[in-house]
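re: ur question from earlier - yeah i can do the single chain one, its not a big deal. heres the input i used so u can compare w yours
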Amino acid sequence: MAIFGKHSPDGTPRRHAWDSALASERKTVLKMMLIALGLTTALIWTILALYFGAYYRQEQNAYRLTVRILDMDSQYASTVAGAPAAILGPAVVEAAQQNRQSMPHYHLGWQIADSSELQNLRVQQGGQGINASDYASQLVLNQDVWAVILINPNATVLATEAATTGNAAYDPRGAISFFYEEARNFYATNQYISLLGLQTIESAIAQASRQFVSQFTGSADALATALAGNALTYPFGYSQFNLRPFDQLAAEATTTAGAIYLIIFTFFISPVWKKAFEPLRRKLTMKSMLALNWAVPIIAYFWLSLNYSLVTLAYQTDFTRKYGYGGFPLFWAMNWITMSGLGMVMEGALRLLGPLLFPVFLAMWVIVQVSVAFVSISDMDPFYSYGFAFPVWNNVDATKSIIFGTKNHLTQNFIVNLGWVIGGSIALLFICWYQRRQEDKQELQQRIEEKKEHKQEKPSGKTAA
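and the output i got, formated as tokens:
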């Protein structure tokens, strides 16, 4: 008899897939596959839809990306005696309003600064008030807005002086200053802020330039003088100020796909530790069992987070821009706490759901986290604001602050992720405690049943004697 022929090693005959003797087995396999397909289909239309939904309606939500317009050109004209009427400032304001009206479903969140705000800004060099450029920079760095378009106080004045004197050294790029912060979210900044912001600025410059040139066409002498310089050719221009550039490309991994790997490496510990601990678990006291269930993964995350952080450092990422030499320890600490928060939840879910249903939870856990980690929450529907309270978003936000120098939210980031560590730890310990109690009860009940059976067997044994 061939061992690998039509019989198994114990002599049992092997059958074809559609043999009638295997009807029960086929039914079981079909049932399990249908359940798996049904469950996976449900996940695709629920959990995966959550991820796709994060990218849906981004153009319609662009209005949530706010841009403040500081028209200091008009402010200068209204407060300085003898100043020419502002041309550029009103043109920018009008261009923003036209953008909002002509593209109601695809425009930035234009905010026109009112007179009370502008009155606090300095309109003349050496005068009183806050420097307008410093104020605009702080609005962006404090993340009060995504960008600021500052029409400088003397924009129309300098262009007029250059045209009337034939000044060939006039630089029109000082008319408008465009402030933004790329590292806050380079997707939102490059796809919407820069694109739509510069389109509006260029449209306003074109309109203002036509109006400006028309002032000099009525007089031959005035036109000749203006043509001697460059003010008629380029009366207005702009300069861009990227206050926090996304200029460390090696760090892109930690703020995008690296967040997924952070979850994956955390997950590696859960099934391995559970299986390795199982032979020892029942032999330990309740206190020792709970302590090891909590401490071993936390220590493992400490080591894994160190290596994850060192990989980023190995590719010459600069951690000293905002927090000096404390930047790398902060980065490591945030990764450790994030892994611990993610891991404690996964440890508890694995014990609660078992190996069959745990992959369903893992898919949900990953997608819920990464859906809000890459694209700015400001550019999503309000539902996705849940990301502010989840570990991965806070990890990415802290990483941007440490590496690129964006606004410091570290207190919030650490508190939120420590909350997940504490909450996940409590849940894990409760699940382990409850399951141990249930196992002890079952074992006790089994022994009681065995004693009852033993007592019932004794009388029958005496009668037989």
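Residues 410-464 form the longest helix (55 residues). not sure if urs matches, ping me
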